[in-house]
Amino acid sequence: MTKHAGGAGGTAMDIATPTRTKDIIRKHGFTFKKSLGQNFLIDKNILDKIVDAAALNKDKGALEIGPGIGALTERLAQEAGKVAAVEIDNRLIPILEEVLSPYPHVSVVHGDVLKTDLAKLWAERFAGCSEVSVVANLPYYVTTPIVMTLLEQKLPLDRIVVMVQKEVAERMAAKPGGKDYGTLSIAVQYYCVPDIVCVVPSGAFIPAPNVDSAVIRLTKREAPPVEVSDEARFFRVVHAAFTQRRKTLHNNLAALVGKERKGELAGLLEACGVKPERRGETLSLQEFATLSEALATAGMIE
Ligand code: SAM
Question: What is the value of pTM for the model shown?
């Protein structure tokens, strides 16, 4: 367990307690916006688990998405050398400036993370850091776009430790063969090794969300686990395979290559060692990679 300034019992500085959170909210007359996924963490033990999973130190940087009133930001500030936090809600900016005033190495950026130039932010905020992690209690209405943006932009980041809806964490970490395995599992596992750090009950937040949550760590891979000559094509095949989950791979891929080539497609699947009647959810990343290369070689897809 990481030691931090607050210690096990906490101090008056800890934001993540029900009393302090309520005090800050009352003082600033803040009201929660459900549409922005505003569920603030009030459980110090969960914060410890998140921060421990991020393995920060003073040489490292941390990007937080959605700092809220700064409960996690404060802990990141105690552990990391540089912290940047992007918050969309302008009502929270003065609160963050006040609660984070003891930490000059923290910068708060007002904006929508999905519209933020992250490469520029990296260059401006994390120069000289040995590693950078994204650490956040994500707004659930945009979890997948945020995670995919972070991965697809190929930012120099080492790990992502995020609180997400429990079902989403399970989908990210799912192995082939079950109902949770799909395009999100494959996209995440192409770039990262996922592990679920802990499951978090709704009582750890104010206001309590209607769903259980989980902290998941995505450790960025040095290189993808499969070789593909064109990533966009690989993901097009993956998406096509899951267009209608109950349909066979053969039927779903026929919609991609054209119905007139359905017979040829069956032969190609067999030649790749994949029975045409299998469903997308049973295929490993390697099988998808083999298939997308074979489809391209056969001139069946661009
Ligand atoms: N980090 C705080 C905590 O753990 O208590 C708050 C987490 S709350 C689940 C999500 C936060 O993300 C809110 O502060 C919300 O205003 C912010 N947010 C929502 N959409 C955002 C976006 N597109 N870009 C940046 N911040 C966003």
Answer: 0.94
